[in-house]
Amino acid sequence: MSATTLPDAPSFDAPAVVDAIAAWMPTTRWYPSKGQQLDVSLEQRYDLPEADAAILLLRAGETLLQVPVAWRDEPGASPIAQLTGRWLVDACADRRAVQAILDVAAGAREVDGLAGDATSAPAPAGGIRVIAGEQSNTSIIGGAGTWIAKVFRVVSPGDNPDVVVTGALTRAGCRRVPHLLASLAGTWPAGDAFVTGHLLAVSQFVAGADDAWELFRQHALATLRGEQRDLPDARALGAAVATVHHDLADALGTAAATESDTLRFVTGLEQRLAWAREQAAEALAGLDEGLDAAAARLREITSIGELQQIHGDLHLGQVLRGADGGWLLLDFEGEPLRPMHERSVREPTLRDVVGMLRSFDYAAGSALQELPDADCASAGDWVFQRQSEFLAGYAEEAGPVDPDDPVLRALLLDKALYEVVYEVRNRPTWLPVPLEAVRALVTPPPLVTPPPMVE
Ligand SMILES: Nc1ncnc2c1ncn2[C@@H]1O[C@H](COP(=O)(O)OP(=O)(O)O)[C@@H](O)[C@H]1O
Ligand SMILES: O=P(O)(O)O[C@H]1O[C@H](CO)[C@@H](O[C@H]2O[C@H](CO)[C@@H](O)[C@H](O)[C@H]2O)[C@H](O)[C@H]1O
């Protein structure tokens, strides 16, 4: 039997390769510009020749995307395209390529333009598993289940808080976050200069954990079906969030908001409201009056209290319940649709509190989508109860939260509007969940007509 000689694969920067990736990306969960016709071009290539692989940075419209790829003789777990007889594959699902990337992050191998930073060396990749879930990035579990490597898909110049903030909490010994083991940064040309941004974070993998989103969503579903199910502890979750806020304040400091901080905060909310109205004009049509009134109310905010580093995009999908029952917070990257330089700005901790309150609403909203004939009032009660438990636990550690605080109300609307844009771009079938919240937040409650007097 004679061995088949495969033809040479094209170079990673060949137009056919870029075209193949451009056609494949919109089929992935992480691609952030679904439904838009964008020109895709290669901006930077970091070669990993020992693995026949490369990390590519591709520009799609305004966005720079990280796509690690490799050439293989077989399609493997995640093929992109077959070109000249060889397979272009997604390197995140390829063990040899993942090991090569990990080696650079751990400082065991040097590649031009890449810089690794390890606090403790991750174990060899071994058999890897790519998480298939509701994710904006791509996460790979390896090292016999000891680490999880997150490949940042949208890449920006500047520090990624998922590396910097998790790194600070790791050094501070915070018990409510998985510790950071290593990270990788890349440098690429931007105009006349070079810029640097994070590409990868490798953290301890929490084995045997339960996802808080699934725990609460399943409980909401069971409630709507009239079934019994163990109630996850929202009160302890509130206390865990308060502990992380406390550790972040200790590690990275706090500052009382000045007048100009307040003005910047209010202006930021106004800009985001205008941005959401522009980005999701069709979805938000019909809410103009309420949104105008909400925008005017923002100017009534005169004080926003103490500021500090926060999580920035906290929701149930960022929370795990460890095998010991304790809650752990993940993913300090901030909101993926927010520019990177805005994500390390000190903020009121209420922004995270609001993220969790919205998430309980999402859990019930997603349960209602699955059970369209279920009772909406029961879903509303479920949300109210979980939110109350969460706030009670938070208050135990951090002091009470006033549900009528204008800053809290403004942040609730800000988050729901962000979610509307996120769903329009990423998961249009989920749009009704945040849209209903926006409607409720900007629509004044109906005037109750007093019952007629009975003589
Ligand atoms: N350290 C960890 N241990 C166990 N599972 C994790 C860990 N980090 C992330 N995960 C799992 O991966 C999922 C996605 O991680 P996340 O950091 O939120 O990524 P993304 O930024 O893409 O949303 C989480 O919801 C969780 O299920
Ligand atoms: O986890 P990411 O950092 O990628 O956050 C983005 O995606 C989230 C969805 O995966 C999105 O969260 C919204 O949906 C969740 C349910 O899937 C819900 O729990 C959240 O409350 C809701 O905001 C998040 O907004 C987005 O930034």
UniProtKB/TrEMBL annotation:
Keyword entries, A-Z:
ATP-binding, Carbohydrate metabolism, Glycogen biosynthesis, Glycogen metabolism, Kinase, Nucleotide-binding, Transferase
- Establish whether keyword Kinase is in the entry: yes
Q: Where is the Maltokinase N-terminal cap domain?
A: 24-94
Its UniProt entry gives the catalysed reaction(s) as: D-maltose + ATP = alpha-maltose 1-phosphate + ADP + H(+)
Give the highest taxon in the source lineage.
Answer: Bacteria
Q: Which GO terms describe its molecular function?
A: ATP binding; kinase activity
Q: In which pathway does it act?
A: Glycan biosynthesis; glycogen biosynthesis
Subunit notes for this chain?
A: Monomer.
* Family membership: Belongs to the aminoglycoside phosphotransferase family.
- Spell out the protein name for this chain: Maltokinase
Organism of origin is Agrococcus sediminis
